[in-house]
């Protein structure tokens, strides 16, 4: 290798070193690597390469005048400061809280109305249930009373038939076998009728010797008697009947009364004189 070639090689190395420092300062390492590779491949740099390998000084940009600065469009969003952002967030939170509180109040009011309506429906249901229960009990009682009254009316109309059978048994005295057969036949009918009445709950009264009770007895006669206390039933003239605890027919009875005291002739004379004296004094 000649001295000129060595000198050129040395110059290329120095230029590469200067170019590396310049590119490192500017942050363009990739361009520096490309320049070094191109320098190895070509033995001599072109004038344009020499020009680019020389260090360049950044030019200071000119400050534009105030009139040349463009205005910011109105639709461009301007970044706010952190204080303004916090204020906006707080205001938005307060708005949300107020909305939720209003919605909560509305829901509570609606809930109270629903509870009130539910209580009203429950009260109406309880009242209707009580009315229906009272209606059911009343209709059941009325049905029982109607059945009892119907039974009472029918049996009351049959009592005269029973009375006739009893009178016939007392008054008719059969004198021969044929009359006895007739008496036994109608007495059998009478017994069957009495058994049916007993199954229906009919019972005959036995008032003899009892104290007179207007709820069950009807006084037809009074008889003075020393044998029975005053107000005692001496005799039953027409039999009374009961249907359960109800009176079908009052028993017609004779009631004992005390006997009048015996008055002598002398007592009668004194009484007459007293009456005359009283009449004269009054006149």
Model description:
The protein has 283 residues and is mainly α. The chain has a domain at 205-258: Nucleotide Exchange Factor Grpe, Chain A, domain 2 (Roll), CATH 2.30.22.10. Helix content is 62%, strand content 11%. It has six helices and six strands. The protein has helices at residues 3-26, 29-41, 47-53, 82-171, 177-199, 265-282, and strands at residues 202-204, 217-224, 233-238, 241-243, 246-249, 251-257. The strands form two sheets. A three-stranded antiparallel β-sheet has the order 1-4-5. A three-stranded mixed β-sheet has the order 2-6-3, with no helix packed on it. β4 (241-243) and β5 form a beta hairpin. The longest helix has 90 residues, at 82-171. The protein is elongated and about 205 Å long. The relative contact order is 0.05. Mean pLDDT is 77; it is low at 42-58.
Secondary structure: helix percent? 55-70%
SS element count, helices: 6
Name the CATH homologous superfamily of the domain at 205-258: Head domain of nucleotide exchange factor GrpE
Cα radius of gyration in angstroms: 70 Å
Q: Using the coordinates above, name the CATH class of the domain at 205-258.
A: Mainly Beta
Query: Mind describing the biggest β-sheet?
Result: 3 strands, antiparallel
Strand content: 5-15%
Termini, distance in Å?
203 Å
Show unreliable segments: 42-58
Order of helices and strands: HHHHHEEEEEEH
CATH fold-level assignment of the domain at 205-258: Nucleotide Exchange Factor Grpe, Chain A, domain 2
User: Which overall shape is indicated by the principal axes computed on the Cα atoms?
Assistant: elongated
Mean pLDDT: 77
How many beta strands in the DSSP annotation?
6
The CATH architecture of the domain at 205-258 is Roll
Structural class: mainly alpha
The order of strands across the largest sheet is 1-4-5
